Amino acid sequence: MLGLLRRRYLDVLGSIYIYNEHRGYTAIDRVLDAVRARSPDDLELIQAIERHRADERTHYMMFRRWFERQNRLPLAVDRTFGHIDRFIEIVFRKRIDDLDTQAVIDDDRLFEKLCRVIALTERRGYRQVEILLKHPLVKGDPVLMKIFQIIRQDEPSHWAPYEGWLREHGRREPKWWERRIDTFIHSELLFLKLPFLFFNPFTRRRSGWADGGEAAPVRPRPTS
Ligand SMILES: [Fe+2]
Ligand SMILES: [Fe+2]
Q1: Closest CA to 157 of 202, 190, 126, 117
Q2: 122 CA → ligand 2 middle, Å
Q3: For residue 63, which ligand has an atom nearest its CA?
Q4: 111 CA to middle of ligand 1, Å?
Q5: Residues with a beta carbon under 5 angstroms from ion ligand 1
Q6: Which of 45, 58, 115, 167 is surrounded by the most beta carbons within 10 Å?
Q7: Which domains does the chain have, with CATH numbers?
């Protein structure tokens, strides 16, 4: 019985994580479009965001392999389980996919807002992973532990470029109300949505991988 509950908990946790990793790198594609158009000469920033995107894609792949090893697909969770989705919806009153990239390119105030939302989300991710690494149920799964250790290592380099941009451009740090939104989204996920998913036996699994339609990465060929 205990084993079953543990399996269910990790299944729910992994499903929420894999959704967020996929949402993470697909949302960063929008940010990259905006940054490349806003400041094409700021190669340092562009490269830092490209590395961020690559890391989130790697995180996604780690969870995908974790599920593949168990011979199953993740539970079908949608954007209501996405931290960044909720954050953008509350702050911008729009879904990520409906965010007007051109407006973010043209308006510094929108871009700085976006930087704060991403930085807060990444810092939240770091704190959450620290908690999970001490969680007895997670500790029983060595592969999952390895995945969370890698995420913990990567996370600080994820908020750095956005906080760096805010500092260098004399923009303010997140205010109490932005931190309050972050806490609210996290509590909602932890105390409401996660238990709902855990106890809901009718949640179906995905019918395919979220990155199914994406092109495989092009690997450089050896020169000799
Ligand atoms: Fe990640
Ligand atoms: Fe991250």
Answers
A1: 126
A2: 5
A3: 1
A4: 21
A5: 21, 56, 59
A6: 115
A7: 2-199 (1.20.1260.10)
